[in-house]
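Dear all,

This email documents one entry for the complex benchmark we are building for the journal club exercise. For each entry we list the sequence lines for every component of the assembly. Then comes the predicted three-dimensional structure of the complex as a token string, followed by one or two observations. Please use this as the template for your own entries, and keep the labels exactly as they appear.
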Amino acid sequence: MPTFISLADDAFSLVEDPFTAVSDDQPTPPGDVIISLARFQTEGEGLLGEGRAVGVRVESDEAVEALAYDLPRIAVVALAFPKFGDGRAYTSARLLRQRFGFKGEVRAVGAVLREQAGPMVRCGFDAFEPADGSTLADWERATQRYRHVYQRSSDGRPPAFEERGG
Amino acid sequence: MYRYDQIDRDMLADRGAEFRGQVARRLAGELTEEEFKPLRLRNGLYLQLHAYMLRIAVPYGSLNPTQLRKLAWIGRTYDKGYGHFTTRTNLQFHWIRLADAPDIMDHLASVDMHAIQTSGNCIRNVTADPYAGATAEEIDDPRVWAEAIRQWSTVHPEFNWLPRKFKIAVTAAAKDRTAAKTHDIGLNLKRARDGSLGFEVMVGGGLGRTPYIAQTIRQFLPATRLISYLEGILRVYNRQGRRDNIHKARIKMVVAALGRDEFAAQVEAEWEKMGPGADLPDTELARIRGAFAPKTFETLPAVSEAFEAAKLATPAFARFARNNLKPHKVAGYSIVEISLKAIGATPGDATAEQMEAVADLAERFGQNDIRVTHEQNLVLPHVKLDDVPAVWAALADAGLATPNMNLVSDIIACPGLDYCALANARAISVAQHIAQKFADADRAEKVGELKVKISGCINACGHHHVGHIGILGVDKKGEEFYQLTLGGSAAEDAAVGQALGPALPYDKVAEAVDTLVETYLRERRDGERFLDTFRRTGVAPFKEAVYADVH
């Protein structure tokens, strides 16, 4: 079974992935699945009715607002990075966490490099599928790079201006 | 000068360690050049024609003598003994070895400097009025807000992978010395009737191959809401900016496509939903304000006898005083402009010795304060009039007393084909030829304010679109040609220049500028600058004169 890096209670671990990522041209396999937004909009109701866990893959040019009312029943939102340099999913993640209060898993998929680990955690991602062969230890190190942050974000870390005030 | 605290220093140390690791992985072949490129760019490292270029941030153009000496030392140790000040008020070294770059970062961090986000598709070094804290024109000190923006934009988790680069300028005076309207966001500090501070927010300016002047999307934003409003703008841009075409990826294209009103409505909607979470508490704004080393000014008479006597005794000093001094808010003080445009030199270049000379003067006579301007010059913002003769003499010894501020030889030029891999044509030598045409200082003064700006390619790093005379190098079947535009401005009366006519060959450009100037002198009415005359007459008399000469 494939694995991914998971962040829970401030600790990283390598976990087996219970979900099958299904592309639009594949039939739906049994079990828990991650499907495209378009497919979710047509088949989501039925799949959820079968009692399985359903995740939705949102491309970087798709708006997470489209999922707003479905979020409580979605287990995973997989935000796609078509390229390392495409930063739209950071905004999507913050919207999921801060505007819509999504409590499920927000997973980074696609061109995911350890360089992005820090900002991803800050924006609310808690599951990662690295594409650069980085290990759990690499990933952990990358997120601990900066002792301080200057901005408020989705991770609740106190920004510099609060540290100074305190 | 903003004084770093331990948190600011830790940030630089952590960034330096991260970069060192990335360079090591690159040198070990663990990172491909394609993967490494965006990482090195975010640390100011470009691959140019001959070597790596390192662009060091000079946040809002503010330096202290210790920092400038360190830059001189880096130039001598790791480069060829000089550096190049840019239109982003940064400093570039053009001959850097990749393996040295992590050490250079550590040396920079030792004096609270860095190269963070001086390139790449992220929020770049913020620009502010180089006369901040010295001019009576300002409503508030723009550096306080620029520093708040520097911190907020540093390693921002959401906005570090934008569609394209992003530049912000802050000014607090009616006279704009930051080229605010050519920035992605221009902020103009204002005071409301009730005395409260706020910003006029202008968005969507930018040069490059499709120039736009920024448009106002909010007349008055309460100053304490600045950061959340910036987040609103950046979020709309991050989501809507085009990522399929690098030439259409700047925010100016989003503003143009949506229209100003629709863009503004989207920002306001986003901002309202976001709430004030990102805003800085008043205590932090007060802390930043307090972290700028306070200046103490003596009570002096408005007229300095020593200064007046020196002007009478030495015509060259009198000329320097006419052109390079600007009024200070405190009686008996002056703002001293240092030209990096000596006739025949490369615009913006300074040798290590010159940097050290300026550092010494700032220490002895200038309250440890040095500024870099977007027009590629330096400023000593706080000099006693009594001391100006001594400052001038020392500048003259260092080859830095060229009395040509805002005159025709005070030219902005990009590095052009001499250094840059993108360039189509030389820019530096064109600037040198034009400056030599106007080497006669009397004639240059008679011409008065004239902003010549030269870019070696359509990317417009030399700001040619907003030059009173703009010059753009193009490649025509392997030969360098130059398109001239007239009537542009980067100041509060910002405008994009208008094409003069067919492109001219390399050896005809300086002559054409000479002809344009002669035409202006013939046409001008009392008190008109070149720009004013052009705006009154239109392009016709200039076009006629230049192309009559060429054919």
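Observations: The first helix of chain B runs from residue 6 to 27. Chain B touches chain A through 37 residues (CB under 8 Å).
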